[in-house]
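Colleagues,

For the teaching module next term, I've prepared a clean inverse folding example: a structure given as tokens, and then the sequence designed for it. I'd like students to try predicting residues themselves before seeing the answer, so please don't circulate the second half yet.
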């Protein structure tokens, strides 16, 4: 937003030099400047506030409460360690989704882990990711998995169950993901069965190169399906067993 646009927005919201002086006279210039600085750290800018709201809320009797709210970590910081980056200028690389889906064949990921995959196909999929543009904004993705309670699949599940916060997990396969938790949970997990269930919640950073496209609709609107490259790594943030589901929360390291 240009400086002229910001000025126009502030005037439209009732901000004038006289209004700023009026607020400063209510709470003092030092308090006003401190609150402005705290608001900027939160990502709040002056052009989004109406003067009348500020005038009514920034009172001497409410200063301590206001400062406390601005100092207190947001839910995003508490959960992910930082504020998420939001942008309307982002790229899903959805034009590559159909081609990737054509190349993907059933248990291809299992074959990759066993080194019995079609190397030409795997290389073609790698090449698609190499041509991807960066996502451009942070997104939260989900993935559901189910493991049989015996043999190698149980061993794989136990490796996930033993991951500790701070450890780096390398799937070494292409991971299918969605931005809809219910779809990941209901389509790929079944806590009522004897199988072992895993639900991933992943912070996918703006720098990541992923393939993703609109997939379906739910009560909250359109949701997506996509995939991460097989070179991806996840930094584990938490690992909890709840209601028969192993819940892994992590951040994708692009």
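(Answer key — instructors only)
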């Amino acid at each position: 937003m240009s400086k002229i646009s910001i000025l126009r927005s502030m005037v439209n919201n009732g901000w004038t030099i006289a209004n700023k002086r009026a607020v400063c006279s209510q709470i003092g210039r030092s308090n006003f400047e401190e609150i402005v600085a705290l608001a900027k750290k939160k990502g709040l800018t002056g052009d989004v506030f109406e003067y009348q709201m500020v005038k009514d809320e920034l009172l001497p009797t409410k200063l301590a409460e206001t400062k406390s709210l601005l100092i207190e970590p947001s839910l995003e910081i508490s959960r992910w360690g930082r504020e998420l980056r939001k942008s309307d200028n982002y790229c899903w690389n959805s034009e590559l989704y159909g081609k990737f889906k054509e190349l993907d064949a059933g248990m291809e990921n299992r074959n990759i882990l066993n080194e019995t995959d079609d190397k030409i196909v795997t290389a073609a999929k790698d090449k698609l990711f190499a041509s991807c543009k960066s996502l451009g904004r942070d997104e939260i993705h989900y993935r559901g998995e189910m493991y049989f309670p015996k043999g190698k699949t149980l061993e794989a599940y136990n490796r996930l169950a033993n991951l500790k916060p701070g450890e780096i997990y390398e799937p070494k396969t292409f991971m299918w993901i969605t931005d809809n938790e219910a779809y990941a949970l209901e389509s790929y997990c079944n806590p009522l069965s004897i199988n072992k269930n895993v639900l991933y919640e992943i912070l996918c950073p703006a720098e990541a190169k992923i393939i993703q496209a609109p997939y379906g609709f739910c009560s909250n609107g359109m949701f997506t399906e996509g995939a991460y490259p097989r070179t991806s790594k996840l930094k584990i943030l938490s690992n909890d067993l709840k209601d028969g589901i192993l819940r892994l929360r992590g951040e994708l390291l692009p």
